[in-house]
Structures are given as C-alpha cells and as structure tokens.
Amino acid sequence: MKKKTLRFRAALLISRLAMHMQKLLGMNASYFPGKLAIKLCPDFLGQIEKPKNIICVTGTNGKTTVCNMILDILTDNGYDVLNNKAGSNINAGVASSLIADSTLTGKTKKKIAVFEIDERSSKLIYPYIKPNFAVCTNLFRDSIHRNAHAEFIFNIISESLPKNAHLILNADDLISSSLSPENKRTYFSIAKLDSDLKKSVNIINDMQVCPNCHEALSWNYVRYHHIGNAYCPKCSFASPKSDYIAKPDFPSQKVTVSVYGKDETYPLVSNSIFNTYNEITAITLLREFGLTKKQISASLKKLNIVESRYSSETVNGIEIVTHMAKGQNPIACSCVFDYVRHESGQKEIILMLDDVFDRDGSSEIMTWIYDTDFEFLNSDSISRIIISGVRSADYKFRLLMAGVPENKLICTEKEIHAPNHLSLNGTDKIFILHELYAAEEAMRVKNKVKEAVQNRRNCHV
Amino acid sequence: MSEIKIEVLYPEYANLFGDLMNIHYLEKCIPDAKIIYTGLNDTPAFTKEEVSMIYMGPMTEHQQELVIQALFPYKEQIQNCIDKNTVFLLTGNAMETFEAYIENEDKSRINGLHLFSTYAKRDMFHRYNSLILGEYKGITLVGFKAQFSHSYGDNRNCYFYHVLRGDGLHPGSLLEGLHKNNFFGTYTVGPFLVENPLFTKYLIKQMGVQNPVLAFESSIMKAYQKRLTEFQNPKLRFK
Predict the structure, then answer these.
(1) Is B219 within 8 Å of A151 when comparing Cβ atoms?
(2) Phi-psi region of B217 (alpha: psi -120 to 50; beta: other; left: phi over 0)
(3) Which of A163, A365, A416, B178 is most buried as measured by Cβ atoms within 10 A of its Cβ?
(4) Mean pLDDT for chain A?
(5) Is the pLDDT of residue A461 over 70?
C-alpha cells in the first residue's frame, strides 16, 4: 500500500465534506467529490485503500446490466459490495464510491468491489485500480466524438489492463476477445442458434477480413454485426474456443451452460439475445470468482432486469411502446430497429432521435445515421414513420435511401406534434423510439398518443 | 457517354463514419454506373482499366499503414490517373495516405505516397470534433470533422475549398483539403456527397455525365438547405 501523503489526507477530508454537503442539500450522489479529490491529489485513486477483491466491467454495450447482475447476485449471497452504481463510470465516479466507503483515515470498509468502467477511462483508472477480474462484454463502434472507432478503444483497454487481471471475455466477439493476449482469460459464448445467419446483414461489420492476412473471414454463424463465430480460410486466425457455452431455451426460460464441458442449468432472466449475453457474462465471472451453480441459480430466480428504457401499455387494443434508441450510437439504434421489425402486427413508428444537447446552440454531427440500419424499417408491417425533431429532413433522406416509400414518411419539427400524424388505421402497435435524454419528452408524446387512440375510439363508438 | 466505373478502395477497412453512403448515393444518382469494390488483397482496377472515379473513406490508424503499403506499388499509376483528370474523392484520414508522411506523437514517421507535399501529425490524446462551412467554385459546402490528426505544410496551390467557418487543413487554416485536377481530398467525415448535393452534381459532371439528376433531389436539398441555414447562423457553436 502506497504511503498516504498530506495532500491525499487533505483531498480526502475536503471531498468527504463535499459529499456530506451534497447529502445535506438533498443532491443525488455524483462524481463531484471524486473529481474534487483527484483535482486536489492527482494520484488519489492510488493512495486510497481499495477492497481486496475488485471486479471491473467494461465494454461498449451491456456493462451496466452485467454490473447490476453481478452486484445483485453477490449481495443476495451475503457479500457486502462496494460499487459505483450511484455515481459514474469514469475515474471520478470510482473515486467517489471509494470515498463514500472509506473511513476518515482513508481505509476501506468493504472486502469486495464491483466497478463499471467507461472504456476510455481505462487509462486513468487501471494504473491505480488493479482488478482481480476484468470483464469486457463486447467492443463496437460508438460515438465518433469520444470513441472514434473500435480499434482505438481496444488499444486503450488492452494497453491499460493490469497484467495480473483475470479476463472474462466474449468468444463471439472477434474484437474484444483479443484484448491483452498475455493475461489469463476465460471465454464465454452462446452456441449456434436457429436464428443465426451465415453472413452479416448490418452496415457495420468491423471484422469482415482476417486481421493477419486480410482474407475474407468465413462464418460458422453471425448473430449481429461482427458478433458470431468465424475463421480465416487461409491462416490460423479463428474465434477462440469457449469455456462457458450458453444454450438458451427461450420457451422454457432456461439456459444450459456448458462449463468446461459439464452442463449446468440456470433460469433465463430475459428473452432477448442481448440479455442472454449479459447473463452468461455474469455467470462466467461469478463461477470463476468462486460462487457455486446453486448460489448463482437461486439468485437469478429472484432477478429482474429493469427495463427502464422500455415501456408498454395497451389502450383500446393498440399497444403503445416506448423504447430508448441511443442516438449517435449506430449499433444500439440498429438493434432497436431490428427488434421493431420483428414485432408482430401492423406498426406505426414515431422517431425522436435528435441529440438534445447539440440542438441547443450547435448542429448535430449526423454521420452516424449512415452507419445505422434504417433498412430494417423498410418493412410491409410498418405502415407509417413519423419523423420528429429539427433533423427530420436528414432522417427522411436516410429512410428514402433505405428504400422506405415516401408516402409512409411524415416529418414534423416538434416532437409533441408527432401523434397528430398517426393514421391509426389497422394499427396494432405504435412504437415511440426516443433518444437517451428525450425520455421525458417521450412520455409526453406517449400521453398524447394515448389521447389520440382514445379519441379515435370514441369517434367510432 | 462511356460506361461510368467507380472504384472503391478497401471498403472492408475504409468505411468508418458512414462514408460508404457516398457510393450508395452515387449508385442511386447514376443507376448504370459499375461499382468496383477492391479489397486489400486485390489488384486495383485502375491499374488494369480506365475508371471514372476512385473513392476511399476514413479508416483506423493501423489500417492507414496497411493501405499505404498496398498502394505504394501503384504510386505512378495513381499519379497518371490524377494527371489525366480521373475523379478522386478521399474523405477523412484517407487523404493522409496520399501526403508525404504521417508523424506519430513520438516523432516516428510513416511514409505516405507523397503525391502531395503536405504531411499529417497524429495526436491520439486529443479528439478534434467540429463543423465546417466553406466554398468551392461558388458552391457552399457543409461538413463534419472528427479526427485525431491534422495536416500541415503548404496547400495554398492545392487546397480543395476556402473555409468560411471552422478550420481547414489544421486549426487556424482557412484552406481545407487537397485538390489537383479532379482529385478532391477532405478531412470531413460522413457522406460528403449526401451533405453537399450541389457539389455531387458537379462531381458527376466531371465524370462525364452531361445532365446529372440527383436521386431524391427535393429531400436532399431540403436537408442541405436546413443545415446551411444553421451553419450560416453566426451564433452556431462549431466546436
């Protein structure tokens, strides 16, 4: 343990006071105390005492869900776990959680910590936080402003990860599975499914060719984008062999996991393939950590994945669904569009994808919509798409390029006006697809949609 | 008019930021055009036949090095294509592969094709994001920049367009990109041709189409006009 400097002690005291003040003022926990502490003492994270066992979870998609699963299962099994759930996943958020847990002298009160780590913050966190286990869910393209491209993020994580960390990696992700090749590693995957493809249908596939010889990869199966199992027909490059292989049985809500060749059965917490990945990630970590199948299984039975980004309500026979579609993130939006097109019934869609920050004084960089599979919305089962927001002309052009007939498209600059344009003619479902920070506006739009559905019904009575 | 052939170099790599939509849009505008996708292990079509246009989009830093290696044996043929007015469009950091060299933070250098004397400097610790407004031959251009590197050197005799707002080749420069004959290189990312339909019309003419017709013209013009109005607002934040 590094000797604590006077500067550290002052930073700890001041940041604890700041945290206390925040509580007195009724403010939510935030990364502010940690930010202050690091400002006052740049190696604060290095000096503050950490729990003996540390689990870090990173990756482009699913890290929050995986972190919550791990945390809930550990807690259910009697572990008192330090975490950064309430703050943020950057270095200041991790520092805040350590401050909140520490004694006046900077000693930790807990023996185990689970931290969600922002990918780009790896280089600021891992020099000080040495995880026993480091989990990476997957790596994809994300916001071009911050994350540039997957290779950039891969390099940051790979170069930052401490050599002693035992890695838990996704064998179905040919990018993240190659992280820090010298580290001890355990792989998880999902076995071939009936719904799998032989070729990626997404615009983005960052593993089209072998990274060694540039030959086109052959796929045993593709799930979405570059997620699947592949090999190079010319050299030895291939998806790694998996240690934990999940075989989900969605109708029976169970998943059989082959653990080093021996089958174990667990309850399946969700019907989606994304959450099955999240679950197998958590199971792999927890089994490697030392929990038994029985312990994990019992806790999973009690687990509910909070669908805070989704709501569904049926009004007069029409299902109204709100679903977050994270703007500037082509993978997340493509996944939502794929989900909508596979939903049964005749559908109308309200799109509200504008970046609420950029439209306040700037102009959103719209390149991401050309990486997003708007083609999935070109479906006979989608009768109308109402595009709302200041960027509606861009989305309309994108949808035309995707082959959606112009007579299905209606633009309106004000989101709240979108429900006025619903046809409600033979409509079974209405999807309101909204940006992360437009959740409140989406609720207002939803209420207006409910009124429209109700009024139309009354007119017909 | 002879057959329009558009060669897309290394689309398996040079496809970041939705830039391949440049080609998909050209396909819609010139339905008879033949699109040739050339992979890193392939011999480029321009070495064997005449092509109307060569396109390359942005890529990762490692892939830039692979692309330079792949194109190096064809440097003279590329120069010949530029000299005889073949249309080139290079977007994002693809442009840097045609410059003299790319310098890393540790001052190490990767030699480029050196078809232009300018050079690029990487700064992987600082991402540069910005809007840009400019003008080329009376056409007002709009664009987005998202990059780790900037180019330096003298592009006064070979710049693509005058910058009206934002930065050109590097912060403070009012001259964006590289241009010679029908070669156009710009740091802007995303589908430049979608963002700038009037330039697209001009570019298609340079390929030999007498009266180009833009696909979804009213919609694309509406999106362009909307963005242009925003970009011309002096209160708009560019960075």
Answers:
(1) no
(2) alpha
(3) B178
(4) 94
(5) no
Q: B52 falls in which pLDDT band (50, 70, 90)?
A: very high
Q: Is the pLDDT of residue A27 over 60?
A: yes
Interface of A with B in 154-213 (CB under 8 A): 203, 208-209, 213
- pLDDT bin (cut points 50, 70, 90) of residue A395 is very high
B41 closest CB neighbour out of A148, A214, A396: A214
Q: Which residues, in sequence order, are CB contacts of B76 under 8 Å at separation 6+?
A: none
User: Residue A64 corresponds to which tokens in the numbers above?
Assistant: 């929050």
ipTM above 0.90, yes or no: yes
Task: Determine whether the interchain pair B129/A368 forms a contact, defined as Cβ–Cβ distance below 8 Å.
Answer: no
Question: Distance between CA atoms of A56 and A156, rounded to whole angstroms?
Answer: 15
- Residue indicated by tokens 């109204």: A320
Which chain B residues touch A141 with a CB distance below 8 Å? 16
Quote the tokens at residue A250: 């969605």
Given the structure tokens 């990869």, which residue do they identify?
A217
Question: Alpha-carbon distance B55 to B37, whole Å?
Answer: 10
Q: Which two tokens stand for residue A413?
A: 């600059």
CA dist., res. B200 & res. A452, Å (int): 43
Q: Is A447 helix (H, G, I), strand (E, B) or coil?
A: helix
Per-residue pLDDT of A133-189, as tens digits, reads 999 999 999 988 889 999 999 999 999 999 999 999 999 999 999 999 999 999 999
Strands A318-324, A347-352: parallel, antiparallel or unpaired by DSSP? unpaired
Residue A265 DSSP SS3: strand
| Chain B residues whose beta carbon lies within 8 Å of the beta carbon of residue A146 | 127
The structure tokens listed for A31 are: 């990364």
With contacts defined as CB-CB under 8 Å, which chain A residues touch B39?
A: 209, 214, 216
B34-38 and B5-9 beta bridge pairing: parallel
